[in-house]
């Protein structure tokens, strides 16, 4: 996500109504792919990611009064997108988030059956949303802890703690189902 | 959970939920949907409403926590 020119960001923050509307549209087209990709990595469902991208830009529009141009648009938009995805995760039922058949990754371990993959995915969906987001971004997507911390508005140490708690809970859940990781 | 277990669990998790590859694109143009959302939604509630509501909620939680101190760790967990 680029940060856009300062005149564009200033127009978005405090321009005339016409300048603001134009700046908002430009920022949407500049950042829509990055916002969509970020949300998709969290919710893992393309149509939900599309809806949440729309929701994110609606929130960005509503929150323009709190935008600080000197801090850039990218991180701000990412935090709002993360919050929108978090709100969705809190209300979605785990079973509704998963596709009927989970595709095997390109480097699939033949010892891990589709049934085990589905069990693990469902156990992961049962984690508390704040643990899931941290683990999704830091463990599955392997993003730097610093980026995850910034998106979640928490410290790097808090990200590490949430990842640890997520893995510990996941392991416990799987063990209860007879799967020993 | 030792480092080996943690590493094994991470690999299993990536098998179950593979990372999103590349730069995915939405399947449709989202700008018209953004415009519809902006036109359809009422403006955000005035700040005064939130200040009042937040204050009432906070006061309620404080009173509850005072009577049921065991709930404090639960509140902190969900923060």
Overview of this structure, please?
The complex is a heterodimer of chains A (181) and B (79). Chain A is an all-alpha fold. Chain A has two domains: 1-92, Rna Polymerase Sigma Factor, Chain: A; 105-181, Arc Repressor Mutant, subunit A. Helix content of chain A is 71%, strand content 0%. Chain A has helices at residues 6-14, 17-43, 46-62, 74-91, 94-97, 114-125, 129-140, 145-152, 156-176. In chain A, helix 7 packs across helix 9 (156-176). In chain A, 35% of the residues are buried. Chain B has 79 residues and is mainly alpha-helical. Chain B contains four helices and no strands. Chain B is flat and about 50 Å long.
| Fourth-level CATH superfamily of the largest domain in chain A | RNA polymerase sigma factor, region 2, helix turn helix motif
In helices, the fraction of residues of chain B equals: 55-70%
Could you say which structural class the secondary elements and strand pairing of chain A correspond to? mainly alpha
Mean pLDDT over the full residue set of chain A: 87
Biggest interface, chains and residues, is: A-B, 46 and 31 residues
Alpha plus pi helix count of chain A: 9
Task: Kindly name the structural category of chain B.
Answer: mainly alpha
User: What helical percentage do the residues of chain A reach?
Assistant: over 70%
Number of individual domains of chain A: 2
SSE arrangement:
The complex is a heterodimer of chains A (181) and B (79).
Chain A: H1 6-14, H2 17-43, H3 46-62, H4 74-91, H5 94-97, H6 114-125, H7 129-140, H8 145-152, H9 156-176
Helix pairs in contact in A: 1-2, 2-3, 2-4, 3-4, 6-9, 7-9, 8-9
Chain B: H1 3-16, H2 31-40, H3 47-67, H4 71-78
Q: Characteristics of this structure?
A:
heterodimer, A: 181 residues, mainly alpha, Rna Polymerase Sigma Factor, Chain: A, Arc Repressor Mutant, subunit A, 2 domains, elongated, B: 79 residues
Brief overview, please?
The complex is a heterodimer of chains A (181) and B (79). Chain A has 181 residues and is mainly α.
């Amino acid at each position: 996500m680029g940060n856009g020119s300062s005149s564009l960001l200033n127009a978005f923050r405090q321009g005339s109504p016409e300048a603001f509307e134009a700046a908002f549209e430009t920022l949407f087209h500049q950042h829509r792919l990055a916002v969509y990709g970020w949300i998709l990595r969290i919710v893992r469902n393309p149509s939900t990611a599309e809806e949440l991208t729309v929701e994110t830009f609606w929130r960005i529009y509503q929150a323009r009064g709190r935008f600080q141009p000197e801090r850039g648009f990218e991180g701000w938009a990412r935090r709002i997108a993360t919050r929108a995805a978090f709100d969705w995760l809190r209300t979605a039922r785990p079973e509704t988030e998963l596709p009927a058949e989970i595709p095997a990754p390109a480097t699939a371990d033949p010892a891990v059956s589709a049934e085990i993959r589905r069990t693990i995915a469902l156990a992961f969906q049962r984690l508390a949303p704040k643990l899931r987001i941290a683990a999704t971004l830091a463990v599955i997507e392997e993003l730097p802890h610093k980026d995850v911390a910034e998106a979640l508005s928490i410290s790097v140490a808090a990200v590490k703690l949430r990842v640890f708690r997520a893995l510990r809970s996941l392991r416990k859940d799987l063990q209860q189902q007879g799967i020993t990781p | 959970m030792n480092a080996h277990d943690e590493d094994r669990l991470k690999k299993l998790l990536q098998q179950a939920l593979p990372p999103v590859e590349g730069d995915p694109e939405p399947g449709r143009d989202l700008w018209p949907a953004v415009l519809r959302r902006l036109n359809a939604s009422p403006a955000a509630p005035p700040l005064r409403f939130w200040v009042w509501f937040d204050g009432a909620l906070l006061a309620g939680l404080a009173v509850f926590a005072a009577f049921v101190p065991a709930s404090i760790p639960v509140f902190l967990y969900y923060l």
